[in-house]
Amino acid sequence: MKDETLIEMQSTTESPNGGDDNDLSLNSISVKESELSEHSKSDLVVETVPLISSLSGNNTSQGSKDSVFFRDGVRRIDFVLAYVDDKNDERKQERRKEYEANLIKAGLELETEDKSESEDSKTYFLKIHAPWEVLATYAEVLKIKVPFKVNDIPNTRDTPLEWLFRPFRLPEHIMNPVPDYFTSPFNKEKIDFFLISDKETLFPPSTRNRIVYYILSRCAYYKEDHKDKDKKGIKRLLNNGTYQSAFPLHDSRYWMKSRNSKCESERYNLYKNWAQISCFYKEQPLNLIRKYYGEKIGIYFAWLGFYTEMLFFAAVVGLICFISGVVTYDDNIWSKEICDSNIGGSIVMCPLCDKKCGFWKLNSTCTASWQSHLFDNVGTVFFAIFMGIWVTLFLEFWKRRQARLEYEWDLVDFEEEQQQLQLRPEYETKCSGRRMNRITQEMEPYLSVTSKCARCCLSGATVIFWIALICACITGVIAYRLAVYAAFASIMKDSPTSKLQLVGSLITPQLATSVTASCINFAIIMILNFMYERVAIWITDMEIPKTHLEYENRLTMKMFLFQFVNYYSSCFYVAFFKGKFVGHPGDYNYMFGKLRNEECDPGGCLIELTTQLVIVMVGKQVWGNIQEALVPWMCNWWGSRKGRNPSDKRVYCSWEQDHDLQNFSQLGLFYEYLEMVIQFGFITLFVASFPLAPLLALCNNILEVRVDAWKLTTQFRRPMASKARSIGAWLEILNGMAVLSVITNAFIVSFTSDMIPRLVYLYVYQPNKSATMEGYISNSLSVFNISELRPEHQPEDGENPAWFNSSVITTCRYRDYRYASGHEKQYFHTMQFWHILAAKLAFIIIMEHVVFGVKVFVAWMIPDVPSEVKARVKRERYLVQEYLHNYEVEKLRVQLSQLNGYHSPEHTTVICTLAETTEVLPECL
């Protein structure tokens, strides 16, 4: 113990920066500490701050405020609290006074910038510094790993054709800003075991910020004799307005390096090499991102970058499938039959709606048929199968990439249970009950079973209510479709748009109805999203989750479940319900007894599903980019309008610059994941209807990576660094969507497209037994006797076109497989219908079994953790144990030799005067 205390003393007197002036200041402090050894820790800290200020106060210039250090230029600013002093609110003043006093007792050092120096002459800035004793104590509490030896395991990874990837590489000092070390959880008793060349730089700024925030979130703002023990944590002080904001500082301005050589200027390097659109083809500096923002943000960008890379392969295959549809455009026999004036012009189709819609000829759907062929061809089946396998490859390779990052970022031994031991301050505050933990044998707060059940029931009822609200809105959109189709048909019959040369034939009642309904549906989606986000946060707060991890997982499931229904319900309706329960002429089915169920576009429902998918997907991506980039920029611009007067010579301090930026909330990363997972659903669940969806997602994500980097680096305050070894609950959600995507695409190919009916006709019902599709259109249409139409189904006078003559035309055709009028089973389904239904079900079963079989085989073939990483992890653990063993043996040998030796009285005196410990908050242990 004496030797360890001696090491503490020697480290304390070392200069953290190597300069002579700094040595003088720190030696002066050490003398002061030795003189005040009999005083308490709080007295020591209070007297230390003015001492340094007095030593360096005469040399302080205005330029020193544009840095991340205290006025003395030595102590680093680890956190900043901002507040406006309201003299009429004594309660806030009392809270701040008690809170800051408790922070000093916890060992933190404080320095206040007067409001006269602020931009608005109203805001105070409280700067916080964590000295070595505090960092060391809480690093041990949080089990922070510290390097003890440079990693000497050779890296055997070789990239094939390395020279091809050189244009995409970044400089080595950007990609790997720090050497690779062997690390071990920090232990104050083994301080000489670790590589500590400078105590001020042992813990990087992101780790220092995390430690300080950990203290801030658990420090109380009541007196020791106060009965109300739940008044604690910076979050509550922010909520009640005691402080305006709390944030760590950026290390420099993003457009220029810091003028202080002790600042790393990592923000500038990130902006220059990562956050610019011109770097879209460059790799991401993940190690620098992790070092500056922490592992949680680093692993998000690693996942987003890997997802974007994998999208490239899906986009290429999807583009090839689309091109195949364009190339085979002229081989589309059934579309030629529809467009043929002799065939399609002679087939009279039954009305698609009552009263306002008359009879029409089949060749009027010529354009829609050609459009449908671009997405409804043989390539669609191949692409649906490919995407089922691609999803598996994406998830399996991501697990391997994640395992490699865990090793490289020293997260192999980091368990989520470590986070679960760290209770949320809100949980500690709101849970008044206490009980013994059977594992730790300590009293801990808990929520009673009755209260927990009541809160969960209320939460579940709220979620069900909002999902029901979505279903009601979708029903309203369906009713809109049914109500306005007839109106569009009546209005557009003689509309001037029908006479336009290029687009006149494209503007049809079906297209107008589909586009307007999709736009209305998108507007409803965005409004419900805006409202539900606040409801989801409220009910999650009401449940009082125990840990931050549990809080995020609960909110994740609520938000995803809601948005899944919100975004995909309209696509599910068009794909699997629209046109499936229409009935037939003379016996139609009605919604609410008045509105006839909606039929598919004459070109098929697939083109309508494509339209719906494109509008919702593209609209969401455009709106998301505007919301993410433009809104923070506009807010910062608006705030800068009240900037300093050019004649004001006061320095625009770094803490004021960061205070004027937008706050990156704890849920900021949550919304980024949610946006990408919803996009993942669009390109997997319904990709059989739109092979270009991965290409659109790829273009968006290339921009998304740089937009997210730009806003995080330039428009937001520096987020709190936190650890994470994976993407959390999102991985399970992605796995679930991967399984569901195989099912949905199989059903889309079977029931939404015309692929299966065509194949059945080609191989079974082709009259000439030739491998052609001639006669398919006539075969797929049933015949109805017009005279059997009920009066309420008869079109109104004037709605029928001029060429229609009821005395000549006695029958009409409709899409279905039913017996004609006069047959003993008239209007019942023919045997061909049941053959087609059996073929559809057989295709679903075969496709699902094939894809799931390949998925299982691929997952089995590709291990989640690369063998190389497993070997390196085992080797590192062995070496760590070996070094620890040798260290303990050497330490014991030195202690035994000292016990047999002579100890000078000087050593004994020094050890006694420096044997001090930092007060640790009880909630942190």
Describe the structure.
With 925 residues, the protein is α+β, with helices and mostly antiparallel strands. 55% of the residues lie in helices and 7% in strands. The chain has 30 helices and 16 strands. The strands form seven sheets. A four-stranded antiparallel beta sheet has the order 2-3-1-6. A two-stranded antiparallel sheet has the order 4-5. The protein has a two-stranded antiparallel ribbon with strand order 7-8. Strand 9 and strand 10 form a beta hairpin. The longest helix has 44 residues. It is elongated. 33% of the residues are buried.
- Class of secondary structure makeup: alpha+beta
- What is the strand arrangement across the widest sheet? 2-3-1-6
The dominant shape is elongated
- Note the beta-strand portion: 5-15%
Calculate the terminal CA-CA distance, rounded to whole Å. 22 Å
Low-confidence stretches: 1-63, 497-504, 904-916
Number of helices: 30
Total strands: the figure is 16
Largest sheet: 4 strands, antiparallel
Q: Quaternary status of these chains? A: single chain
Report the radius of gyration as a whole number of Å.
Answer: 35 Å
Overall mean pLDDT stands at: 80
Write the layout of secondary structure elements.
Blueprint: H1 2-12, H2 20-35, H3 41-56, E1 79-84, H4 90-105, E2 109-113, E3 123-129, H5 132-141, E4 145-150, H6 172-175, E5 181-185, H7 199-202, H8 205-216, H9 234-239, E6 245-247, H10 266-273, H11 286-293, H12 295-327, H13 333-339, E7 348-349, E8 360-361, H14 366-375, H15 378-408, H16 416-420, H17 425-430, E9 433-436, E10 443-446, H18 449-492, H19 509-543, H20 548-576, E11 583-584, E12 587-588, E13 590-591, E14 595-596, H21 605-640, H22 654-659, H23 668-685, H24 693-715, H25 729-752, H26 755-765, H27 776-780, E15 781-785, E16 811-815, H28 831-861, H29 867-899, H30 905-913
Antiparallel strand pairs: 1-3, 1-6, 2-3, 4-5, 7-8, 9-10, 11-12, 13-14, 15-16
Subcellular location: Cell membrane; Membrane
Protein name: Anoctamin
Membrane topology: Multi-pass membrane protein
